[in-house]
Amino acid sequence: VQEPEEKKIALELLETEQAYVNRLHLLDQIFYTELMKEAKNGKTVPEEVVKMIFSNISSIYQFHAKFFLPELQKRMEDWNCNPRIGDVIQKLAPFLKMYSEYVKNFDKAVELITIWSEKSPPFQELIADIQKRKVCSNLTLQHHMLEPVQRIPRYELLLKDYVRKLPPESPDRDGAEKALEMIFMVAKHSNAAIAEMERLQNLWVVYQRLGLEDDIVDPSNELIKEGPIQKISTRNNSTSEKYLFLFNNMLLYCVPRVIQVGAEFQVHLRIDVDGMKVRELKDTQFPHTFLVSGKQRTLELQAR
């Protein structure tokens, strides 16, 4: 007898979940536990560092091992009289928000492993020692750590496939569709968290280049565009190199600093976007010129 397609996918979900729980066990119960033990003995790295590397992996492991995997197993055992997984996945979805902390921390974690492996040979040796064990199947700690990052997209794909293969009259139709929507929202939530973190990091870098003038440091700002520009001086018919930063709320007109220490630019002028007008000029002597006028003042600029 040919198994129905949707059951095959549900079984694949169960099998990958089992493998995933083994991977989480390796991360939490072996890597984290042993590195933590050595850190406590003061032999390798500060305990704080180990905590920062593994973020909230323990909660993720406990959740999958003690709750989600057993629920899935139960479901697959009673499949013949109750062919559904949608309800279990609906229970799972809200907990997947825990992942955004882990995912957000991932790059930092990998960087910490690299930095401390160089600083502390005993730390590096312990990791290498664990990696040699059979349970690691010749893969690095970093490789295993990537697994939780990839798990939510995997749920999404499997569940999409499952919903596609469900017969129209399946008792799991409503449940599975609702579950898919929930998983989709969580995946979006975790991507949004990463995007927000990147935006803030980039913003911080820009503020440093500007010398952190306190009246412009605002975490809600968004950098839209930046680049060099020529300022036209009508007085003596010449141009000089300047630099613009356009944010959602202001245009910063800057001068590159000659001294390479500290900030890269000095903010000469700030024009609020509110009430700002831009007008192209037809100037034969200076092509690509435009006028920016705001409450603060008017500039005549030439683009490349």
From TrEMBL:
InterPro entries in alphabetical order: DBL_dom_sf (IPR035899), DH_dom (IPR000219), FYVE_RhoGEF_PH (IPR051092), PH-like_dom_sf (IPR011993), PH_domain (IPR001849), SOS1_NGEF_PH (IPR055251)
GO biological-process terms attached to the record: cytoskeleton organization; filopodium assembly
Localization: Cytoplasm, Cytoskeleton
Residue ranges occupied by any DH domain in the UniProt entry: 5-193
Keyword Zinc-finger on entry: yes
GO molecular function, one term: guanyl-nucleotide exchange factor activity
Keywords: Cytoplasm, Cytoskeleton, Metal-binding, Phosphoprotein, Repeat, Zinc, Zinc-finger
A Gene Ontology cellular-component term: cytoplasm
Pfam family, one: RhoGEF
Domain of life from the UniProt record: Eukaryota
Residue span(s) of domain PH: 222-304
Keyword Repeat among record annotations: yes
Name the UniProt record assigns to this protein: FGD2 protein
Organism listed in the record: Podargus strigoides (Tawny frogmouth)
Organism ancestry: Eukaryota, Metazoa, Chordata, Craniata, Vertebrata
